[in-house]
Design goal:
144 residues, 6-stranded antiparallel sheet, 4-stranded antiparallel sheet, 0% helix
Amino acid sequence: MESRKLKQCPLHRVGARPDHLVGRRLDRVVASWHLYGTEVPSGPVDVWLIDSDAVATHVTTGSDWCLIVERSTPFEGYDMAEHGRIEVAPIGGATAFADHLGQTILAVGEEGDPNTGRIALDVVFASGRVRCESWSGELRLSSG
């Protein structure tokens, strides 16, 4: 699978090219979760893939439903008063990346939309693939 040049998002630009992940070992994954009352979160708001060189690649969605991929370190969680809180922590078995920790990334691929730029990122390991996509403005992670 080969990454190709995508049209950039009008609001967030093209962001980082995920090709830098190829050949690196996925050491850790940190995620942020929106917690509100007793509701169970449907999935993470952000994920940071931290590789064998301690480089953190942030994957999240933009306000225009694009998929943002950038190099940045995880931020601290914060309280949003009556709107809940954002909690940031290393994942346990909570995302599709959990089964691939310690493995080398073999390939990455992207999909784009002419209006919003990147909408999906596939991260391929020997044991399978994780798809990150923007779905109605929310980050969705799935294994394949």
